Amino acid sequence: MTKSAAIIGGGVIGGGWAARFLLNGWNVIVSDPDPETERKISEVLENARRSLPALLDNSVPQEGKLSFDTSLGEAVKDADWIQESVPERLEIKHKVFAEIQVNCRKDALIGSSTSGFKPSELQEGAANPAQIFVAHPFNPVYLLPLIELVGAPQTCARAKTALTEIGMKPLIVRQEIDAHIADRFLEAVWREALWLIKDGVATTEEIDDAIRFGFGLRWAQMGLFETYRVAGGEAGMAHFIEQFGPCLSWPWTKLMDVPELTDELVQKIADQSDQQSGMHSIRELERIRDDNLVTILRGLKARNWGAGQTLVEHEARTKPELPQDISKPLNTLNRVIPIDWTDYNGHMNESRYGLVFSDAGDIVMQMIGADQTYIDGGLSYFTVENLIQFRNETHPGEKVYVTTHVLQAEGKKLRLYHEMFRDGGELLCTCNQLLIHVSLETRRSCEPGPEMAAKMAALHEAQSKLPKSESLDR
Amino acid sequence: MTKSAAIIGGGVIGGGWAARFLLNGWNVIVSDPDPETERKISEVLENARRSLPALLDNSVPQEGKLSFDTSLGEAVKDADWIQESVPERLEIKHKVFAEIQVNCRKDALIGSSTSGFKPSELQEGAANPAQIFVAHPFNPVYLLPLIELVGAPQTCARAKTALTEIGMKPLIVRQEIDAHIADRFLEAVWREALWLIKDGVATTEEIDDAIRFGFGLRWAQMGLFETYRVAGGEAGMAHFIEQFGPCLSWPWTKLMDVPELTDELVQKIADQSDQQSGMHSIRELERIRDDNLVTILRGLKARNWGAGQTLVEHEARTKPELPQDISKPLNTLNRVIPIDWTDYNGHMNESRYGLVFSDAGDIVMQMIGADQTYIDGGLSYFTVENLIQFRNETHPGEKVYVTTHVLQAEGKKLRLYHEMFRDGGELLCTCNQLLIHVSLETRRSCEPGPEMAAKMAALHEAQSKLPKSESLDR
To answer: From the CA of B78, how many Å to the nearest CA of chain A?
Structure first.
């Protein structure tokens, strides 16, 4: 059954949560007294729709139903998950939790997006304290996988399962602490950065460059300790710490002290930030950020590493069934076109059609038994020839699908005719693809075994009765 | 004339510098008394050779000449750039600088890789203080673009020019300060991380995950301030700081205090790190890291953003000449195969051949005048058909080249026959490509103007005399 989430507080974070749930097939009710809520949420959703679905090379789930209800009690009534993202003031949060717990299901999960409060603080005076926990996300919530979970172990375990199902990476924090884990680092860096600006050592742009051209690239994939483990080399982590250790007592930071946020300092930062980024509107910056994140995440997915591994696992979990009915052209692919496939002509680069057809061919391979286990066993198919004919342009964010007619499946040969369509049925591109069964040991062609041959014969038999597509005769 | 660098100190950082210079065509002499230096440097070089050249889609420069000389005086004698990467002890560095300045050219640049010392400290007692400056790199030096430059303005300006030419991103630090800029942030995060581990709040793996699944992904592309500018939304940076501001005085960090590095704490960290990463050798981790970095950097390059923009600019600077002699098959592409083009069969995915041929086709387009300015003016070529025949497998790190025979260049039509070879001449793949001249406004075919038509005619005339390749008749 479709699950439902109630989002309490419809700002940037609440909107990000709404998008994450909706685009993973949950129904969502947003509750916020602000009359601008619907517009704000729709703006976040627009960003999310053009980025999140393209992270996966799978088809995406049917989007859930979005509704708005200013009555908090009504909004939470049937929800499986209730997410509080109201302002960071404890008395407001307590009031909201009280109202939620009067109205919600006893088995509902009640997460708080708080950056700083501990669960014990959130739970003060609650009717059912164990139901309330910290589920701290990172902006943009629809793209960044990390969620810090802090609270009762059983509640966190249930929350982890639900979040994993919507593609997130829940990190259960072992013991409650102010600001959980990540924000303690952000706080430390922020303090140091304020001093550097106040003292005129660096501008906002120079600080950003010092991060994103250097250690930011390392941290996106390995974090702090694994990076240092590598830097330490064969001598090991303990040796590395001993080397690095003495610097700790050097006066390299001004962290012991807090700069006063005078109007002058705030203005200095705002001016520098305008100088650095003012040529882009916030909307433009959001899209630049999202396109960058999608590109980095998709890159890490291809390496099956870090945040990319989360995507690989999510994709495996949401993998569509192989086509069952072989008496008609096979629906071998359904997907959204990602931003990183676009070229200087403003459309999907010709080479990416090859990737779409390569993926479609993989599905037919799997149907006859050439799956990852088969490949790991040392046998596979290699493509030896592709005739690709381009009919119409394809753009990022578009949904497309491929139907495949198996023209030949006998001996070592697999000849496939793929047609790629835009959602709605317009023909975009065709590919006549010849694959040959190979040994991965000799890297030469060889006959498949009897089991695969039987599957190929059945497929060949069923598909040979189909009329050839009009486009094939072109 | 080929430039030369002397690398004083052949550890991980010195080795990274050597690789960066060598693979950008400089000659390099390494000087280090350690008898293991040659082996150590060759290991770093092996890593660099499999990652750095694949960052660019251009051909790579001829690698420089590497030599070793234990005599520091001999090593620095003719060098344009001298880079000191000896241990972080001021008296050792002073001794090294004294010996360098007795022997080196007066116009040589003398950079120090120091993480912590200020130029004024390095220059103490030097014969020519202004010649010595901080050039602080980030590991792995052959991949990460950032270099912090601190020192005399004229020296830093010269250093910036030289480093930009080898693809780096020099950041001139406005005023000297302990640990420059980036390491102050690293120091702050490191302190906080030690406390979290000591207090049992998180393990090394949990801390790394809290970084790389969340803000690490943001920092790889926008850094700190631009990220917060976006998060702040339309209300602006000043408003954002005011919201965030009060937290500064909350007790969210333990930075005021330094944890004692007891044997017990060091062992705890080492054990956790083994648990987290011990299944990979350091060599494996280096390659995983490098493949991830290449993937992220290439992704950002496609977005022309951050560290990727540095690559775009470097690629433009090192762009090869268009083929001049049109009386023979055109050499339209020379490149190294990047890691992110490999698929589950352990070889270059079929779709990436399409990309190679798409890039080769672009060169022919440029030769007849369809360059970026032409495309910006609203006219371009679209590919309508590709027949790709795969002959042999291609692997990451391999050098390949493409020769193109222009079969037809008249009216709206451009028909190209591309052959892709492995370095050495083995045929890997062929592509018969048909392109059509289009208006980017109507997205329909149209005739090119007389200037382009004349260039096409000349190309057609010259190439029509060439014999057809044997592979074309297959």
So the answer is: 31
- CATH code reported for the domain at B321-473: 3.10.129.10
Name the amino acid, one letter, at A292: N
Whether A226 and chain B come into contact, CB under 8 Å, resolves to yes
Residue of B174, B196, B443 lying closest to A200 (CB–CB): B174
Using alpha carbons, list the distances in angstroms from residue B284 to B47, B131, B351.
Answer: 10, 39, 28
For residue B460, count other CB atoms closer than 10 A to its CB: 18
pLDDT in tens, B421-467: 999 999 999 999 999 999 999 999 999 999 999 999 999 999 999 99
Which pLDDT belongs to residue A344? 83
- On chain B, the residues whose CB falls within 8 A of the CB of A353 are 351, 354
Q: Do A270 and B237 touch (CB under 8 A)?
A: yes
CB contact A188 to B (< 8 Å): yes
Instruction: Report the b/e string of A66-85 with b at 16+ CB within 10 A.
Output: beeeeebeebbbebbbbbbb
> Tell me: domain A320-473, CATH 3.40.50.2000, correct?
no
- A200 touches B at CB < 8 Å: yes
pLDDT of residue A58: 77
Which residue of A lies nearest to B357 if distances are taken between CA atoms?
A351
- Per the listing, tokens 């995507």 go with A311
Q: Residue B252 in contact with residue A179, Cβ under 8 Å?
A: yes
**What is the ipTM metric for this complex?**
0.89
A10 Cβ contact list (under 8 Å, min separation 6): A18, A30, A31, A32, A34, A37, A40, A41, A85
CATH number of B183-279: 1.10.1040.10
In this prediction, residue B238 has a pLDDT band, given cuts at 50, 70 and 90, of confident
pLDDT at B245 over 60: no
Q: Is the pLDDT of residue B247 over 60?
A: no
pTM, to two decimals? 0.89
Asked if the model's pLDDT at residue B139 lies above 60, the reply is: yes
Total residue count of chain B as it appears in this document:
474
CA–CA distance, A52 with A143 (Å, rounded to integer): 6
Which amino acid, B70?
Answer: T
pLDDT in tens, B181-237: 999 999 889 888 888 998 899 999 999 999 999 999 999 999 999 998 888 877 778
Instruction: Tell me how far apart the alpha carbons of residues A210 and B146 are, in angstroms, rounded to a whole number.
Output: 7
Show the low-confidence residues of chain A (pLDDT under 70): 243-259, 473-474
Neighboring chain B residues of A242 at a CB cutoff of 8 Å: 261, 266
Hey, where are the domains in chain A? 4-180, 183-279, 320-473
Q: Which CATH architecture has domain B4-180?
A: 3-Layer(aba) Sandwich (3.40)
Domains A183-279 and A320-473 share a fold: no
